[in-house]
Structures are given as C-alpha cells and as structure tokens.
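Entry 0007
Protein: Bifunctional salicylyl-CoA 5-hydroxylase/oxidoreductase
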Amino acid sequence: MKIAIVGGGPGGLYLAALMKQLDPAHDITVWERDAPDVTFGFGVVFSDETLGGIENADPEFADAMSRRFARWTDIDIHVGGESHTVGGQGFAAMSRKELLGLLQQRCRDLGVVVHYSTPAPDVGALRASHDLVVGADGVNSLVRQSSSDVFRTTLDRRHNKYMWLGTDLVFEAFQFFIKDTEWGTVQVHGYPYSDSGSTFIVEMHEDVWRRAGFDTAEEFPPGVSDDRAVERIRELFAAELAGHQVFANNSKWLSFTTVRNERWHDGNLVLVGDAAHTAHFSIGSGTKLAMEDSLALAACLHEHRDVETALTAYEAERRPVVESTQRAAQASLEWFENIGMYVGQEATRFCFNLLTRSRRITYDNLRTRDSDFADRVDAAFAASQGLETTAPAMFQPFRLGQLELKNRVIVSPMDMYSAVDGVPGDFHLVHLGSKAMGGPGLVMTEMVCVSPEGRITPGCTGLWTDEQRDSWARIVSFVHERSTARIGFQLGHSGRKGSTRLMWEGMDEPLPDGNWETISPSPLPYGPGSPVPRPVGRDDLDRITAEFVAAARRGADAGFDLLELHCAHGYLLSSFLSPISNQRTDSYGGSLENRLRYPLEVFDAVRAVWPAERPMIVRISATDWADGGNTEHDAVEIARAFIAHGADAIDVSSGQVTADERPAYGRSYQTPLADRIRHEAAAATGTAVIAVGAIASYDDVNSILLAGRADLCAIGRTHLYDPHWTLHAAAEQDYRDVQWPVQYRAGSRKPPTARTDAVRPRLSLLRADAPDRNVHLRWTPHRPLVSGVIPAG
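Output (structure tokens):
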C-alpha cells in the first residue's frame, strides 16, 4: 500500500512506524513542514491504558519510552494558602522532544521516508497518487480544509487564555497551583517530565487576562515567544518556583479550540489526532489521543484490505471513545473557565470538586486510590452541613424550607399518561407508593395539570376537580402511612405542547381526533406538525392564574408536602420565559424581565395560597439548547428572580422548549447547569438547588453532593428500573442506618454475588518480520480511567 502522511508529529510518525512493522512492503512517506528538532510544549503524559497499547504493539519502542519516563502517584493542590495531597494516581510523562526523537529514529530504522522542513504536496495530487492519505497535521489542518464540505468541521474557541511553559523545578507530583490575584483566579498545571524539568502551564479566564494587562503584548510571529508575559509569570509565581527558572518554547498566549468533525474520512483521505478532534489539556493529551488513533487505524487497515471498509471501521471504533473523552474534556475546561466560582469553597471540598470536575473521576474512584482523602471529604461535607456524624452524602438529611427530608434522593417527576379524566387511579397508587417505599427522601408526582385544556395528553392527571383531589389524597395518605418519604406534586399547564397523543403512541404528535385548542404567548407551533397555538390575552392570563391557585388549594387539601411550579420543558410558563416561544411586543415579551413577568405572577398567586410552612419550588429549563434561546446565563437570572419571590429550591432541568433543540447529552449532563445556578444565584440566600438528568448511580449522587454542585439529586428512569434503588444503594455501600419497610427487612442485606473475571477478546496481529510474535493494536482497559485528573501535552 502506498501511504502519504501529512504531519510528522507523534500521531503521524507512530502510524508510519506501525504500518511499516505490519508490512515492510508498505510504501510510506511523511511530510513535516517544520525541522525535526522543532516542537512545541515540554512534557507529554500517558495513562496506563495508552502505555499498555503501545507496549503490546511495539515492545521495543515502549521500552525506549519507559527508560525516559518520570513517574508519580500523587496530586498536590495548592489553594488558599493550604496544600492538599491526593495519592494513588499512577501516571508517566516524558519530554515531547525526546518522544519525537524516538519516533523519528524508529521511522528511520524501519525505512519510512520523512521529508522535514517540507510542505506536503497538494492534497488532490496526493490522493491521486497514493492509496491512502492521512491528515495528521494538527488543529489547523490543511488536509481537513481540503474536504471541509465532507468533514463539516466545527471550531469552538474557548474563553480561557493559557501559555505552555517549562521550568527546571522538578516536581515530585502533579501540581495544581490556584492563585487568587487582584485580577481574579490564575491557575497552573504542572507536572514532571524528566529528571531535569517540568511542564508549567499557566491558565486564566480571558477577563482575568485582560485585567492583568496581558492583552497589551504585541502579536508574536511563529517561533517567537512572548518574553514579556513570561517575565510577568515568573514574578507572579515566584514563591511557587522557589528560585527556579521558567523557560519558553515558542510560548505565547493561546485560546483552546475544540475541533469536532461530523466525518473523519472521505474516500482515501482520513484524519487522525488534532486534525480530527481535540480535547482540552486539563483532561487528556492530544498526543495520547493521536497515538491511540494511529493504533486503531493501523489495526483496521490490517484487518480490512479495502481502504473504504478500513476507514469506516476505524471511525466506528474510535468515534465513541473520542466523543466520550471530548464530553469529559468539555466539562473540565468549563470548570476551569468558571474556577472563580469555586475558590471560596472550603479547601477540601474545593480539591474534591477539582478532581471530579470531568465526571470521570468520582468519589468511589478516589476512595479506591486514597481512602484517607475520601475520609477528609466526608468529614468536610458533614461539617459544612452542621452534622456531627459522617455518612454517604446521599443519606445525610436535608431541610428544605421547613420540610425535613431523611436523605437527599428525590424521585423525579415522570409523566405516566395513565389517568382517566385527570383522575389518578390504582396505577398511580402503586407507582408512587412503591417508589416511596424504596427509600427516597422525596417522591414527586408527574405534572398535575390545572385544567382539561392544560393537559399534555388525555392521560394526564389534574387537580381541577374535587374528585381528583380526593384520589390524590388517597395516594398521599398511603405514602405517609407506609413510608418515611415525603411527597410533592408538580403543578403546570401544557401550553402549546398540549393536545398530543400518549407517549407510546407518538410523543409530541397531535391527537388524531378529540383535540382541544392550545395556547401560548405567541402563535408559534412547537415543532413540525404541531398546531399553531392561540396567543393568550389578558382574560386568558387571569383565568389561568386562577386555575393554578385553585389547583394549589386542592393540592394543599390533599396533604401534599411540597409544591413544584413547572416552568420548564416548553410548557406554558416555560414558553413565556423563552425568547424562542415568546415573541410578544407587550409587557410580557421582549426583555428577560418582561418574559419573567407572567411566571412570577403565577408564582406569587400560588405562594399566597400554598401553606407557608410547606416549601414551594420551581423547575426551570436552564438552557434551551437552541440558537436564539435561553442560555445558562439567562437561567441564573431566572433563578435569582424566583428566589427573590420566595422559591425554596430551584430544580434545574433543560431543553424541550423547541423541537429544534440540540442537547449535549451525556452522563450527568445537566449537573453543570445546577452547579452554576447554585454558586451564582442560590448561594447568597442558601436556597437549595436540585440536579437532575442522567444521574444513574449512587456514586454520581455522592460525587455531585460532595463537590457542592447541588444540594439534592432527582433521579427518574433509574427508579423505573428499580423502585427500591435508594435502599439498594444503601446496601451496596454497606450503610445500615436506613429504615426499610418492616415487610422488606429480610432483604436488607446485600446478598453474596459470584465473581466472574470476564475477559474481552483482544485483537492479535501477526507481525510480518517475526511470525511467531503477536502485536496487539487494541487493548482492554484493566483499571478505572483516571484521565479526568491529569492534564497532558
């Protein structure tokens, strides 16, 4: 096979070496525009998983790398004048320049032709003359630009400024230096890469960077460092450097750009490494990802002789891994962009927050690595809550207004579409009753509608009649008599999302017959096929407010412990808040203040009749996930407004405001929204914040609470899978101080389980130059991922 590789960085050279080992007959040429001794940055960090793949693929190269490694197991976090150490990490780093030297030598030994200081020929000409063209030419890839219409690239330029430096101070562990300056928070990511030097990355928000005067520097050409900025950094971190030097290497202020591509290959053209994707340095190394790409691509090319089939297989294999890494990296980089929100936390909680920022590292991960640190985190959390005893965070009690909750787990509202004429029946009794007996602190009903026209579907429950009230009272009484849980109801009006079929018959699809008129702030349908709603007038608003008030009174009479006003998911009150659905020109539209007006009117009216000793909370969509819609910054202001009007908690959901939304789904994907609202809107008043959305494990719950990202966690679908999830979580954690229903106590101890050491198959490739040796180009991770903690080059 004749292969052209554009880019002589680690990804391109490693691919060339692998392919040449697999078949010396491959004709491989690499073009690199820089000289062989030119490189940027200082150190490169590798995880155990990556090193395992390299060792299996090329033991000789892996051995050469290992002789140059600096290894460490600890992370030191310096914040607020204190230093905290967390152990058990296990990473290795080496000089980027030495890594390139090893790869260059490996390619020379194997007969790979490399043209240095030479721009690659035209991509079209390369494609015509080669079987395969590989774009390994980095973030600003010219290869990628040659097929931009196919790759459909998006470039997300982030808000922090950073500079990659080195120092002759050899750190004994990874170092986070968090410095609170007169301009704002500045942080350093530092780690050793040899016995003579360490990487020293300085990072700060662009606003801090400007206030500190770093924006006054001139534009520096390629190959020239920003010496004035480097000198200021030496002064700023003089205490941390303790007399040691800081070195530049083409070092200048950069803004990280997240690169994403809808496709990574086009015919015989394929992208690897930063040309295809980037992940912020605070979670993973671009070098690491590029070399993993090369491992996977070499394996697929060896497996599949047809290039198109091989490239399709490569993309199918790597894309899920890379996208997962990018999601974690996005969470990590946003955390550092917002680090100023957290520096006021108690130091131990701050450290835990930092370490778990990407959501790949959790409380259980850290306890496995450093149980002493986990104990300190537990103690710090208990102290912050005024509690004398430590326990899993999810099982610590919580006071919501005047309502005492036995723990911090909420069964989230979930529409069941199983009522008749709005009346909840035996299904709802069993559904909510079983969840209450499963151990949560609070059980929430589905959205209870204020009128027949306020229903989403004909199967939705309501509180517009006394019959409905009495049926709800039966359910509330069961929960109170048979469990120690509290029960709340979610009150709302469907607005323009009403008159639709039951979920399993077609979610958000209009009824085939028996429709009722839908209403909204503006005559804009929810999505394709949705009816055009009638815009509400003054009489409508007064009538609907009265319906909310009447339903709230019935809810109080039914005995509910809590009321949640539904101002999320594109229903009526939510549609007033969003500029996507509210395009009015009167006092209820336009500015955010105006868009808040009617939801606040309803809140005030309901709060006036809802018993003062019972909490009233609000669910909001913290982002519309759509252009022109509300963002998390708007959500902070929305939350502040409801808090000012007396909300006891803000329940932070997102989206479902428009059918055109593009959510960034992932594990606990809405938690950062709750985190921002908690720190920017709720902290000043002590108002509770509830996190919800893809929180699936007790470890996630504990991690969210311990880091201070939320006060309570609402969990939905997991409770459909396991109605007794909270009790089972207690058993899994060997936590005994929970109250099982007396009828179920015989099952309160975790039963023994048989261990099975399942081994996933590994791919073995026969080396052409040594038929008796196997080369493994894919690997099975053999321990929990820890790449959410360590930045790399």
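Curator remark: Residues 754-793 have pLDDT under 50 and may be disordered. The CA atoms of residues 185 and 435 lie 44 Å apart.
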